[in-house]
Write a structure and sequence with these properties.
The chain is mainly alpha-helical. It contains 19 helices and six strands. The longest helix is centred in the N-terminal third of the chain and has 37 residues. The model has no long low-confidence stretch (mean pLDDT 97). The protein binds arginine. The site of arginine (ARG) has 9 residues, from helix 6.
Length: 457
């Protein structure tokens, strides 16, 4: 039965009911709605709407309902209740009769739904934080195992300077660490209870809203009732956290898809996260990574959609805001799935060291080293840059690497070049020299790994 029949003489059109009802998605808020209702029943004792005995009866029935919901949340979907709030109230009345009809005193679905979503978001923040943490740990472990795996580093997708697979992994650790800290930051603004704000103007029952907030595990109660029922900033913030993090995961996926091409062939992916072709027997496609990259799009869509839903809304609650849930649920589920999938992909990754090193040796990725060598011999950097550019053209013409040019050929470009240049042009020297904080030198990467391990412990 609907919660609001009295004023109406005609039943709702079935087509309107289908558009209006939200149970098919907001059933996911059942736990939060029940927990919020228990707290509300306690508040109603403090304002003498319920006796202590009545409250105990309600709480017991709600606790049984919570167990039923936990055992089988999808059973809720069999009901034709309008939304999860109507469903919980209906079930309560089934269990305790008329007493159940007292629960909604002084409360509105507007403060109720705002509370439910915030409670749900708080639980998600914890779980997503753990998944972000776990993925960082997986990246650090992969880095640790691949400190000696040299590969080309790119700018403009052109080979630029040699790096290690470990250094690449640690770059994504940084991005995910920022994602995790953004989540923590979001929690500080999310952790404020709207319950007791009523439909929009506040509840008429003089309760202690701070105490009520505390019962629900919120840090405090909101300050303005109009804002409380119409604020969905926390949904927007979580969606933007998801959107940013999914961009990181998408770039991670794209890098690995490229490393896995036949042309690059720096890595092998596990059979557990790849699939074959129905026609081409030789194929092993990086589907898990492509899906991470692809699913990034729908998360950006959820954020943009919700921004547009909110942008013209007058205060206070409007039914438009019911549109917050499907995008939020989908985006956070997707984010979680992709974080877990990224960990699984890393778990089975093999770096093909000889091939990755060979690629790092090609593409004149040690040109900067030659310029720095000239600088050390007193040539101003801009001049050195020009000289090396000419040497690279010569090497390209001869089909050789810089270090394969005979000394006499190199000396045509600068007489300061001596025999000691060849050691400088070695890959290992290119890595070793980048020893300032954050650089790719083995000591710096080892330090970064040790620091991250300590942070993540
Ligand atoms: N299902 C609604 C939502 O998700 C609950 C609040 C409805 N409030 C109302 N006055 N119709 O936003």
């Amino acid at each position: 039965m609907a919660l609001w029949g009295g004023r109406f003489t005609q039943a709702a059109d079935q087509r309107f009911k289908e558009l209006n009802d939200s149970l098919r998605f907001d059933y996911r808020l059942a736990e939060q709605d029940i927990v919020g209702s228990v707290a509300w029943s306690k508040a109603l004792v403090t304002v003498n709407v319920l006796t202590a005995d009545e409250q105990i009866q309600l709480e017991e029935a709600l606790t049984v309902l919570l167990e039923e919901v936990r055992a089988n949340p999808r059973a809720i979907l069999a009901s034709d209740a309008e939304d999860i709030h109507s469903w919980v109230e209906g079930k309560l009345i089934d269990k305790v009769g008329n007493l159940g009809k007292k629960l909604h005193t002084g409360r509105s679905r507007n403060d109720q739904v705002a509370t439910d979503i915030k409670l749900w978001c708080k639980a998600q923040v914890v779980e997503l934080g753990e998944a972000l943490h776990h993925l960082q740990q997986a990246l650090v472990a992969t880095a640790e195992a691949n400190q000696d795996a040299v590969m080309p580093g790119y700018t403009h997708l052109q080979r630029a300077q040699p790096v290690t697979f470990a250094h690449w992994c640690m770059a994504y650790v940084e991005m995910l660490a920022r994602d995790e800290s953004r989540l923590k930051d979001t929690l500080t603004r999310l952790d404020v209870s709207p319950l007791g704000c009523g439909a929009l103007a506040g509840t008429a029952y003089p309760m202690d809203r701070e105490q009520l907030a505390g019962w629900l595990g919120f840090a405090s109660a909101t300050r303005n009732s109009l804002d409380s029922v119409s604020d969905r900033d926390h949904v927007l913030e979580l969606l933007s956290n998801a959107a940013i993090s999914m961009v990181h995961l998408s770039r991670f996926a794209e890098d690995l898809i490229f490393f896995n091409t036949g042309e690059a062939a720096f890595i092998d992916l596990s059979d557990r996260v790849t699939s074959g072709s129905s026609l081409m027997p030789q194929k092993k496609n990086p589907d898990a990574l492509e899906l991470i990259r692809g699913k990034c799009g729908r998360v950006q869509g959820a954020l943009t959609g919700m921004m547009m839903t909110m942008k013209g809304l007058p205060l206070a609650y409007n039914k438009d805001m019911q549109e917050d849930k499907e995008g939020l649920f989908d985006a956070l589920d997707t984010w979680m799935d992709c974080l877990n999938m990224a960990s699984l992909v890393l778990d089975g990754i093999q770096v093909k060291r000889p091939r990755a090193k060979e690629a790092a040796q090609q593409g004149y990725a040690n040109s900067t080293e030659l310029a720095d060598y000239l600088v050390a011999k007193g040539v101003p950097f801009r001049e050195a840059h020009h000289i090396v550019g000419e040497a690279v053209v010569e090497a390209i013409n001869q089909g050789k690497a810089l270090e394969e040019l005979p000394l006499a050929d190199l000396q045509k470009f600068s007489s300061v070049i001596g025999d000691d240049v060849y050691a400088i042009l070695e890959l290992q020297s290119c890595l070793d020299k980048r020893a300032a904080k954050g650089g790719v030198s083995p000591q710096q990467v080892a330090q970064a790994i040790a620091d991250a391990k300590a942070r993540l412990a």
